[in-house]
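[stage:ingest] chain + small molecule (iron/sulfur cluster)
[stage:ingest] validated
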Amino acid sequence: MRDVRDELAEIARELARHARWAAARGEREFPLPGVLSELDSTTRSTPAAAGEAPPRAPARANEGAPSEGPTPSVPAASASLALPGAEPASPPPVSRPQHPERVLETLRQEIGDCRRCKLCRGRTNLVFGSGNPRARLVFVGEGPGAEEDARGLPFVGAAGELLTRMIEAMGLRREEVYVCNVVKCRPPGNRNPEPDEIAACSPFLVRQLEAIGPEVIVTLGKFAAQTLLQTAEPISRLRGRWHRYRGIDLLPTFHPAYLLRSPHEKRKAWEDLQMVMKRLGLETPVRKSRPARGPGRYDE
Ligand code: SF4
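[stage:predict] done
[stage:export] tokens:
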């Protein structure tokens, strides 16, 4: 059984993390004078504080649910929130609100006919995201392509069809998961999103993830992984291992568009998805039609 002092130390560390995050956002009411230093000294005095534990897993079943109103814009870049000379602040773990559907609807209304970055000029439709607002699993890509821009839906072109097959190979239906992108408007000519565009749009992604509070996030391609993890590491180094995003397990894998161009990499992506299935407790579906080629593979 855990010592009660360990429990208290863990709570203190959690509060200290939240206090640093709130202070870095300029919130004056949370870090009462002296509270942060008190918490820091408490956490430093415990042996477990030496290698600070990752934030706790997101609460399910609406534990500690925040209000349903719009949440403030939160830049995805925790590093950019840091005060000069201060340790980088960690945003608090995500906990799903009671009515994620309403929170997402409110966010969509708030985005409106967004003109916050130059991608608005070339878009036909803003592509917000689609799927189950209470999904256990969220896929995050980088930005809409031509087909997505035309239809206003994420991942509906050739790469989207492959993503759907990947999801089905996991034994899930597309409607059971949530799919969205880092930028909501199509970069012209399908070029990569630029840093100012990611900076302008990623707070919407952060708020979508806050609304949904999934158990697992799968990032597709380098931009989604680098944006949420605040790293410049290449996708080849990020993929295939677990990361944490605000208390949520995050697994980067290749973008389906890349897999269409490089089919020999599908095996690695399938290994990534199997890690996700294991984490979510999903069984690999048995395919009746082609049993000789292995169960549930999407790349056959
Ligand atoms: S990409 Fe995002 S920030 Fe830029 S115009 Fe579209 S919705 Fe707005």
